[in-house]
Amino acid sequence: MKFKYYLAPLIGLSVALPILALFIYFIVEGDLSLSNFTQTEMLSYFQNTLFLTIGTFILVVILGTVSSYLSARFEYFGDKIFAVLFVLPLAYPAYVIGYTYVGFFEFRGILSSLFGNNNLRLDVQNLYGAIFIFGISMFPYVYILARVSFGSVSSTVSELVSLQQISPIKAFFRVYFPLAYPAIFAGSILAIMETLSDYGTVVYFGIDTFSVGIFKNWFGYGDLAGAIRVAIVLLVFVFGILWTESLIRKKYRFASSTHSGKKASKIKLQGAKNILAFGISFLIVLFTLLIPTGVLVYWFWLDIDTLDFSAFGFLYNTLSLNIASSGVIIFLSFVVVYLIRFYPTKLSAVTHKLSILGYSIPGAVVGIGLLLFSHFIDRALGTVVLSGTFFMLVFAYTTRYFAVSIGSVENGFSRIDSSIDDASKVFGKSESGNIFKVYLPLMKPYIISGFLILYIDIAKELPATLILRPFNFDTLAVRIYELASNEMLYKVGFPSLLLVLTTAVAVVLLNSRVVRK
Amino acid sequence: MGILSKVIKGAVAFSIAASAMMANEVNVYSHRHYDSDKELFAKFSQTTGIKVNVVTAKAEELVAKLAIEGTNTPADMLITADIGNLYEAKERGLLQSVTSNTLNQNIPAHLRDDAGEWYGLTKRARVFVYNPAKVDPKDLSDYMGLTDPKLKGKIITRTSTNAYNKSLLASIIANHGEAKALEFTKGLVANFARDPKGNDRDQIRAVAAGDGDIAIVNTYYLGIMLNSKDTKDVEIANSVKIFFPAQDAQGTHMNISGAGVTKYAKNKENAVKLIEFLSSTEAQTMFAEANHEFPVNEAVKASGTVASWGEFKEDQLPLNEVGKYNKKAVEIATHGNWK
């Protein structure tokens, strides 16, 4: 029985292994002196990352809150369609949105062609442009989580608001926003983590963030110690964010208790208000979804007589790999969260924190860390067992996205009252019986939504896949990268649309009743 | 734990079986991601019966991967899109010496390693692209000429971390020394029209848009744009002109795409055969036509688009020199504030 206390720490530690391997390697092999390293550079990584993070945070909070508030609290023209469309930007990798906006706004780009005016252009390849790209591609994280909160506001609260005759805007800021704040914050944390780990978009936009700094030091200067220093500062940055988040979550703990009872009904908007709600929703969808999709369709059209149908083979690879990895990861998360609930130890609390670090680390760094680890194992066994196998890819995705699935599962478990634990202990036949008859059914929506979010994230993953995949195994994301690095943007249209269609299926499922129940 | 050991045993058995089947194949790590390369590999398999397995990724990452894998590496061959990373692989002892009469015949001496550890497959010229309405080509000379104060606010290029810019700067160090290279960097940065960003295509577009007047780019990007299906790309590429720098000096800086056989290659013979095939007239013609790169094999002509730019003098500096100064180039670029 005792092993159950050690299983969660063991899994947590395994998940963090690629990152730990990297740190150990850096410390053993790297020269940790302060030479070859300028303070000004670190300062510029810090400033750029901070600015990008704050900007993205503000944008995802605004877009996510407005969209979720409208969608959860009001009935207006097109509200049901918008409810789905608001989630769909999640289907796009940020770098693809980046390409499309450059193609749209560049000199003699699509915008200038549409209006027949060659001077019509906007330089988006800068920090503000990057904030815009990350904001519009990540806001659905906030939307998805906050909509549940806004939607479960109790009728008592809404009656109180109408009795006090507070204006809708005041009511929003005084009552509803504080109630949904934990969810909004949790969603924006996901968005920020993704932003921090991005490499492709920031490099293309010419912004030196921490993740660019890691690459610059490691590969550019061949300075391992420099790279680890940047990585450590990045981790401190991440811990700072997570710590702030946990403080705020504690402060707003009361929020969940008000969410019980009868749900408030939606308010039907009429006249000008109806038009306003529609207008705001349409603008959000225009910039986050219609323009990027339109650009891809246009490129697809340019390329139509020389389409490369091998993309369907890449689609198959993407699908099979993703479904398998997402399954493994969600299973492991369930095991860990279950064990931490019933067999908690101090050690598991620590390894739990370690296991979610991968989410903020650039995928390529996770990939290299895993190479180091697998090489160590292969050398110990005296033969190549791990390198270039699917196992490695699944491992890398686990390290990279464990935080996402564990968040989902924890969220689900936190809604199961401890009295159920007691009851099942008293009446349940066996532990496994309880898991299958009590916990899994209760957790179903959270497990499915965790699986789908993993599926979407992994489909878009590029850097770790690039380094770790077996020979002759290309995914759609890899294919898009290859075509884009060839600098023939229009060729990106077809595989990007295929990728988006596959993730869009998951997004729509995520939005369906099965998951939202 | 029983299951785990079974899985490990199974995996070991599988990998042994897999390596037994590897007899007639060659495993390639490549930074080149062109469809024409895939066609070339397919053609090679057709004629020789040797299967080509490929993983593409960034060159820096592939070199790191090779270094970590050591003797266990499955890769027989490394292909990079620039000399810097190829030289780095050689310096780290990741490549091995190959002697082949075919390769010596097909590839000129300055485009291959003296010890036979790497061979150039295509040449890439780093040139200026300028706006003919604003720049008189008479005012352009060699790379150092870009530091002339009268070009203030006119120069456009991508970041110094880009492999092509690194190698260009390294070639300046090799040709003129470190002090001159720093002077070049500082003068260049002082003349920038905007912060370095985007890829080569974006630099060409920026010149056409009037954001600056002169950009440093590789020729084949202009070739690709001129042959694009996006008519706007074609118009933009037609609105700028190419200038081959340093014609009165050492000649235009030439980088290469190149290949080497890895130190611990399990299929060395096949790898050599593949490099030989890639240097053949047939393969070189395809490199030239599909991607508008310059063939290294002197028996092969450049594509029509490339030929239309005319003959020019190439820097014959042995590329090991460029490789040697690549790290120094990064230092100097940082020192000179080239982002």
Total strands of chain A: the figure is 2
Low-confidence stretches of chain B: none
Largest sheet of chain B: 10 strands, mixed
Shape of chain B: globular
Question: What class would the helix/strand composition of chain B place it in?
Answer: alpha/beta
The percent of residues in helical segments of chain B reads 40-55%
Distance between the termini of chain B: 53 Å
Radius of gyration from the alpha-carbon trace of chain B, in angstroms? 21 Å
Order of helices and strands of chain B: HEHEHEHEHEEHHHEHHEEHHEHHH
Given helix and strand content, the structural type of chain A is: mainly alpha
List the main descriptive attributes of the protein structure presented here:
heterodimer; A: 517 residues; mainly alpha; two-stranded parallel sheet; 2 strands; B: 339 residues; alpha/beta; 10-stranded mixed beta sheet; globular
Topology readout:
The complex is a heterodimer of chains A (517) and B (339).
Chain A: H1 3-29, H2 39-73, E1 74-75, H3 79-85, H4 94-105, H5 110-115, H6 127-151, H7 155-163, H8 168-197, H9 200-204, H10 210-220, H11 224-251, E2 267-268, H12 271-302, H13 311-342, H14 346-355, H15 363-381, H16 390-414, H17 418-427, H18 431-460, H19 463-468, H20 476-485, H21 493-511, H22 513-516
Helix pairs in contact in A: 1-13, 1-14, 1-15, 1-16, 2-3, 2-6, 2-8, 2-10, 4-6, 4-12, 6-8, 8-11, 10-11, 12-21, 13-16, 13-18, 13-21, 15-16, 16-18, 18-21, 20-21
Chain B: H1 2-20, E1 25-30, H2 35-48, E2 51-56, H3 59-69, E3 77-80, H4 83-91, E4 95-96, H5 101-106, E5 119-130, E6 155-156, H6 163-176, H7 178-190, H8 200-209, E7 214-218, H9 219-226, H10 231-238, E8 241-243, E9 254-262, H11 268-278, H12 281-291, E10 294-295, H13 304-307, H14 319-324, H15 326-335
Helix pairs in contact in B: 3-4, 6-7, 6-15, 7-15, 9-10
Structure notes:
The complex is a heterodimer of chains A (517) and B (339). Helices cover 76% and strands 1% of the residues of chain A. Chain A has 22 helices and two strands. A two-stranded parallel sheet of chain A has the order 1-2. In chain A, helix 13 packs antiparallel against helix 18 and helix 13 (311-342) packs parallel to helix 21 (493-511). The longest helix of chain A has 35 residues, at 39-73. Chain A is globular. Chain B is an alpha/beta fold. In chain B, 45% of the residues lie in helices and 15% in strands. Chain B has helices spanning 2-20, 35-48, 59-69, 83-91, 101-106, 163-176, 178-190, 200-209, 219-226, 231-238, 268-278, 281-291, 304-307, 319-324, 326-335, and strands at 25-30, 51-56, 77-80, 95-96, 119-130, 155-156, 214-218, 241-243, 254-262, 294-295. Chain B is globular and about 60 Å long. The mean pLDDT of chain B is 91. The chains are: A mainly alpha (517), B alpha/beta (339). Chains A and B meet through helix 10, helix 15 and helix 20 of A and helix 1, strand 2, helix 3, helix 8 and helix 10 of B.
